[in-house]
Amino acid sequence: MRRLAVFEQISLDGFFTDADGDMSWAHKEDPEWHAFVAENASGGGALVFGRTTYDLMASYWPTPAAYAANPTVASSMAALPKIVFSHTLRDPSWANTTVLQGDVVAQMRRLKSQDGPDMVILGSGTIVSPLAEAGLLDEYQIAVNPIVLGTGRTPFETVSDRRSLSLARTRSFSNGNVVSWYESVAR
Questions:
Q1: C-alpha–C-alpha distance, residues 72 and 30, integer Å
Q2: How far is CA 57 from CA 52, 67, 118, in A?
Q3: Fold for domain 4-184?
Q4: Segments making up each domain of the chain, as ranges
Q5: Which of 83, 97, 110, 131 has the fewest Cβ atoms within 10 Å of its own Cβ atom?
Q6: pTM of full prediction above 0.85
Q7: CA distance 117 to 125
C-alpha cells in the first residue's frame, strides 16, 4: 500500500495560516532552510495538493524566477507527478498534474490502494484535516515556526477525536524552525 505523508508548516500556536489566509510568515530566506527544502524536494514520490496550495505553487515553481532562485526545487517540482483535489479546476497548466474531483477521503483510499509512488501533501490544510480524521495519514512532518499568530486555521480543525503519534525524529534550524517527523500509531 502506498504511504501518505504530510509536510505542514505551522506557527508555534498551531496555525498553518493566519486569520486572513496569509502564510508569508512561513517563508524563510536562508541557506540552511533552502538546502533542507531542496533535499526534501529530491525525495521523489507524488505531490498532493488542495486547490489553494496548488494555485500558489503553480504560480511560482514553473517560472523563470523559481528556476533562478532555487533550480533544484523548481526542477524536482516540475518533474514529480502532482495530484490536485478540486471541484472547479479543469485544465491544469503545471506539467504532470492530475485533477481529482469528488470525495477527498474516498479518492485517497483509492489512490493508496493502487500501485505507485508514495505521496506527500504539501500544506493544503483543507485536505489534511479530513484525511487525518479518516486515519489515512501515515506520517506527519510538522515544521514549527517561531511565531505566534493568535488566530488562524489549524490543519486539524475537523479532527474530532484523539490521534496518537510516535515521534520518529526532529531537526532544528538556525532560523528557529523545528521539524518533527511523527508516525501514525494504529488505533
A1: 15
A2: 9, 13, 20
A3: Dihydrofolate Reductase, subunit A (3.40.430)
A4: 4-184
A5: 110
A6: yes
A7: 22
